[in-house]
Amino acid sequence: MQTRKKYIFLTFLASWLLLFFFGGDQLRRFAFFSGRKAEARRNWPHWTDRSLLKSFAVPEELQSDGDPSLPSPRERRAARLSVYKNSRCRMETCFDFSRCEKNGFKVFTYPRERDQPLSESYSKILSSIERSRYYTPNPEEACLFILSIDTLDRDHLSGQYVRNVDEKIRGFPLWNGGRNHLIFNLYSGTWPNYTEDLGFDIGQAILAKASFYTENFRPGFDISIPLFSKDHPQRGGERGWLSQDSIPPKKKYLLVFKGKRYLTGIGSGTRNALHHIHNGKDIVSLTTCKHGKDWEKHKDTRCDKDNVDYEK
């Protein structure tokens, strides 16, 4: 037994000596670089710790919804981010303040094209701007630019969806990659996914949008706006309640919401949770369950009463 161990040891030693003499350069180079890497790793800043780095894909991104015809969560996220190529835009990096220095805050709206469809809601937005004291018909004086292309509804299935927006805006001499432009959007994507794919690259433009994804919202640059219906009045009614030194302002209502209460899917959890703050006095939440063709399959015990209150 001792003799066998001795032969095994001598064989291993001979193999190692042969490898060292005939492949010594490679071994020494490997030892040298291994030492350098170990030294560098000790000197790396703490923020390169692997435990602090995000993995290439989270488990949710690798799972599908069970329906091969629908995009996976990873594909949906890629679609959302593809529109926001300038995701690091801030006012100091993507806005030219020099345009505002000479003439102050002046807004120019692009001329309407005869064959370009325009929704009632977007027409109200443009008209409101053009009637304001900030409007200028001269683009040379403008600090901010508003497209005449209706971008409010970016649902591919909508009859108000404007096609080939990318091609059109690239042909505008004032576009300048979107710098100093403001784009309005209320709806994006198509049910049931509602991705934030607007169908064109907004470039360095500011986005005023309803229902932002937090990961796409650029703080201090983009503007989160409420979703409003087409019959929303262009002008206000009675004067507001805000008076001098009235902070907080005197209001009859603190919060009001009227809309669909999605029973399943995106938004359902949020709207169900918000129901519990309704008190019928200064906080009013009116929702209807009537959404989609099969809403009755998912109706809950609150639906009948909610639908009646909504219709009042």
From TrEMBL:
<comment type="similarity">
    <text>Belongs to the glycosyltransferase 47 family.</text>
</comment>
<dbReference type="GO" id="GO:0015012">
    <property type="term" value="P:heparan sulfate proteoglycan biosynthetic process"/>
</dbReference>
<feature type="domain" description="Exostosin GT47">
    <location>
        <begin position="103"/>
        <end position="306"/>
    </location>
</feature>
<dbReference type="InterPro" id="IPR004263">
    <property type="entry name" value="Exostosin"/>
</dbReference>
<keyword id="KW-0328">Glycosyltransferase</keyword>
<dbReference type="GO" id="GO:0016757">
    <property type="term" value="F:glycosyltransferase activity"/>
</dbReference>
<protein>
    <submittedName>
        <fullName>Exostosin-like 1</fullName>
    </submittedName>
</protein>
<dbReference type="InterPro" id="IPR040911">
    <property type="entry name" value="Exostosin_GT47"/>
</dbReference>
<dbReference type="Pfam" id="PF03016">
    <property type="entry name" value="Exostosin_GT47"/>
</dbReference>
<keyword id="KW-0808">Transferase</keyword>
